[in-house]
Amino acid sequence: RAKNHGRNRYSYFTADLHEQAQRRMRLISDLRAALAAQQFRVYYQPIVDLADGQVFKAEALIRWQHPALGMIEPGQFITVAEDTGLIIPIGDWVFEQALNQVNQWRCQYRPDFQISVNKSPVQIRQADKTSSGWVQHLEQRQFPGDGICIEITEGLLLNTEPGTLKKLREYRAAGIQVAIDDFGTGYSSLTYLKKFNIDYLKIDRVFIAHLETDANDQALCEAIIVMAHKLGLKVIAEGVETDEQRRILQHAGCDYAQGFFYGRPVPADEFAARWLAAGDGHSPIR
Ligand code: C2E
Ligand code: MG
Ligand code: MG
Ligand code: MG
């Protein structure tokens, strides 16, 4: 036991930084190989209409099925993908998956279905395929752009470079909708709300987590909802985990909700079976 303890202390003091650096190097080289090795998966989480409990759309969330480490969540690798530029080909791949998926689900189940795709600022600023190339590609396939919504964070819209503006205009011209993700946690400037054509505000889950007990969070949510509606935006609450949170949000006039209370992100076939195929798409726990 003493020996073990000693070893742990040794590794704590000397090996950790080295180990961290090595793990990052390995992560980068694994990440480089992962796309070709088809190790990425797209999971889908329902976004539910609070008025009737029906599934409204889905958010596409990437997962990495690592051969040795198992399923890795995006929090573990998106930053590294951004730092290395790998987010561009990975993001294009996610977008293509979502596009094929929404086409299939529209044909099979719901002609108005939509899938939300996350885009990091790095993707918007750099020339990913979703710029002119993809928009042309979409038009050629006569794809109704409103099948896709892109989720961006507030920070992107703070100091807008001409390229960012151009990109957002191209999306909109193709009919693609735009959501502000993690609303309320980024920069506090609201000027972008009047400068840009935005469709949805997604209230970050830090404002939802303590909704039952925190009067300030309740006040903030109510104010965000009123403001958004006056600006003509729809509101999605993120991270809804309890029926009480759902009830408070519904009472406050929130439009849509997403969270473990309704369902976790799942593979496409599971999503279709639970939310699209079985009758009317109503949540059993409405
Ligand atoms: P996000 O876009 O804000 O996505 C919502 C995250 O909250 C997801 O985490 C989801 O699983 C989680 N979540 C949903 N409901 C609940 C809930 O009730 N409670 C809690 N505690 N969490 C909930 P996930 O899938 O780990 O993704 C994390 C972040 O990674 C995303 O945050 C997004 O910023 C980024 N991300 C995911 N997929 C992509 C992608 O394809 N491209 C880019 N650029 N970023 C992605
Ligand atoms: Mg998102
Ligand atoms: Mg979010
Ligand atoms: Mg986020």
UniProtKB/TrEMBL annotation:
Residues 24-279 form the EAL domain. This is Diguanylate cyclase (GGDEF)-like protein/PAS domain S-box-containing protein. It comes from Silvimonas terrae. The chain holds residues 717 to 1002 of 1002 of the full protein. The lineage of its organism: Bacteria, Pseudomonadati, Pseudomonadota, Betaproteobacteria, Neisseriales.
